[in-house]
Amino acid sequence: MEKFIMDDMPKVYFGEGVLNEAFTYELKSIGDNVMIAYGGGSIKRTGVYDKVISLLKKANKNITEFSGIMPNPTLKKVQEGAELVKNNQIDFILAVGGGSVIDCCKMISVQAKTDKDIWVMQFIDKNMPTDFVPMGVVLTASGTGSEMNNGAVITHEELKIKTGMRGALAKFAILDPTYTLTVPMKQVISGAFDTLSHAMETYFGKPLNDNVSDEINEAIMCNTIRNIRKVIENPKNLEARSELMWDSAMAENGILKLGKTGDFQAHFIEHQIGAFTDCNHGQGLAAIHPNMYKHIYKNAVNKFARFAQVVWKINDELLSQEELALAGINALAEFIQEIGLPTSLTEMGITDKNMLKEIADSCTISIGCAKQLTHEEIYTILIECL
Predict the structure, then answer these.
(1) What separation in angstroms does the CA of 86 have from each of 35, 78, 110, 130?
(2) In this predicted structure, what is the pLDDT of residue 349?
(3) How many angstroms separate the Cα of 316 from the Cα of each of 305, 325, 328?
(4) What CA–CA distance (Å, rounded) separates 36 from 58?
(5) Which residues are CB-contacts of 73 (< 8 A; sequence separation ≥ 6)?
(6) In the chain, which residues have pLDDT < 70?
(7) CB 28: neighbour CB atoms within 10 A?
């Protein structure tokens, strides 16, 4: 394992009905002016909005609302939210939603504390933020694990770049699996596959030798796969949803990444597809992973073979390490088809080869990938994903 520093994580309230307990304690220590941020309004239809507003009013908080955060939050939306925070002298930001809402709020927290454009600050001036408006999270859709870290994925529409940025770390995160019962099943499965993708991309990062972080990761991958199947079999299975919610948190709370340099090349590719097409994140990852892995597995044969054996339970003694590795990748592809996610970009309506060339040429190259790809290889992979 490589050297590492283990930093703080948000305080987590996990389980059915934890909102009241969490707010009873947490609202005492935040300021009077609270901005509640959410997406398209589904929290109003599900009743989460009413619960949150009621508890905020009971605590005598002054409430400002910021709605309309889109699935792939934009820099423009971040700046809109930051202006609202400044104009209303907001003391605390409460993100109520899934990963997109949380990511947007993380960056609003930064932008509200500076007059500089945060895109310029992080990517041109190379300065990372140190001052934030405090924030908390009420999670309504799991998969991204965004509630557990300070990373945020933001789209710069003019530049056609969707990429990670560094934002605020939530003071607390409320994870009640019952809130996911009203999330459309396609979104549940897409989010759960994002969890699996996070785990895989950490697992196949460097170093490739066996280590404790990766062995924990294997358990998370197995648990995620098992409970995706369970929740498809019975969408009301709260135990399976609870497991998936904690799998998501574990995949992105830093534990699996200790001593590792993550891969995340598939994420970088999907981010750029999202910048050009605004596609669903989990679906894009599903279309990319098997094809990309067929390009890199020879540079990590033993790791991919172990992946086949431990995660997919393929233990044919007659298979070579390379054959095992390919069998594991094929098992992943079959699982994607089994759970109803796209197996190609064409299924997602993405067929423009010229656009795919632009995507490949603008894609970030991962230094943690088992094989460092070129832009030309990424274009080849994208064509094979059609």
Answers:
(1) 11, 12, 11, 17
(2) 96
(3) 11, 12, 12
(4) 15
(5) 100, 101, 103, 104, 107, 152, 153, 154, 155
(6) 1-7
(7) 8
> What is the predicted pLDDT for the residue at 69?
97
* pLDDT, position 92: 98
Find residue 139's DSSP bridge partners: 97, 175
Domain chopping of the chain, boundaries: 11-179, 185-384
Give the CATH fold of the 11-179 domain.
Answer: Rossmann fold (3.40.50)
- Cβ proximity of 231 and 247 under 8 Å: no
Both structure tokens of 37: 């941020």
- For 294: left if phi > 0, alpha if psi spans -120 to 50, otherwise beta; the answer is alpha
Q: Do 11-179 and 185-384 show the same overall fold?
A: no
Nearest by Cα to 34 from 60, 62, 12:
62
Cα 237 to the center of its chain, rounded Å? 23
User: For residue 100, which of 49, 43, 143, 53 has the smallest C-alpha distance?
Assistant: 143
* CA 204/CA 181 separation, integer angstroms: 32
CA 163 to chain centre: 12
Report the pLDDT value the prediction gives residue 1, as an integer from 0 to 100. 64
Q: Give the C-alpha separation, 226 to 224, whole Å.
A: 6
Helix axes 375-384, 353-361, angle to 10 degrees: 150
Q: List beta partners, residue 135.
A: 93
Predicted local distance difference test score (pLDDT) of residue 182: 87
CATH superfamily of 185-384: Dehydroquinate synthase-like - alpha domain (1.20.1090.10)
Residue identified by tokens 């994903």 is: 385
* pLDDT score recorded for residue 41: 82
